[in-house]
Amino acid sequence: MLTAEQKKQFEDNGYVVLPDFKSHTELAALKARANTIAAGHDFDASKDVFSTHAQRGPQADREQNYFLGSANEIRCFFEEKAFGADGALVQPLAQSINKIGHAMHDLDDVFSDFSHSEKLAELAADVGLGQTQIWQSMYIFKQPRIGGQVDWHQDASFFKTTPQSVTTFWFAIDDATLKNGCLWVEPGGHKSPLRQKFIRDGRQTKLIDLDDTPWPDTDCAIPVEVKAGTLVCFHGFLPHCSAANISDKARHAYTLHVTDAACDYAPQNWIQRSKEFPVSGFV
Ligand code: FE2
Q1: Is 222 within the bounds of a domain?
Q2: Domain that residue 212 falls in
Q3: d(CA 229, ligand 1 centre) in Å
């Protein structure tokens, strides 16, 4: 699947960019399904916001239950800036959802078709994954005007395996540009230490600092502007972030977080599966 040069890019830089990985037909099917799920969200039952930096508010227990319950369900989260001071949506519902997570790849036929294929299995093998395990799917809307920034982080903080194996498969559903909040990465940054880990302890979750290596600055980070259909595949230690979407169009993306079954998956990881709902691989 990958050329020798692309394999070397992944090893040296911690990521590889694969244009035209998905067809326009596949993108359109996934986008339509995501929009249908978002439009069907029960607005009155849940107004939960997803943010990588906000403090949890007075609804903390209920919000935490909604978040934890999303591990193996299909749930919608609002943009942080979706609501005005009066509590009403500032944009229509369809332009207010931040993301859908986190098990559509196993629970929804359209998402499942998009997320499982021989082509993905071949790519996974080329970047060093043996028997793949897809733990999480996220459909990210990055809504126009209110689509929030995602702070610098490493995805391995959320999916610890020993040895490290988590790899991110990031699909551009729309063109991703500087103006609409494309990914930023630090080429080679996957060789830096893991800075934080996110663990679950009962009903509690916490982000624990592990290493004080600074996050990248503008000198060493680069934007990854890509066309719709592109797959960006990156190492779990690669620092990445995205800016807010200040354009007037949404910037949809879809991600899968995948580990190697030969590595030990930490029991403290917030997403766990049971015998009744086992984790699936690409094929
Ligand atoms: Fe990430």
Answers
A1: yes
A2: 4-265
A3: 18
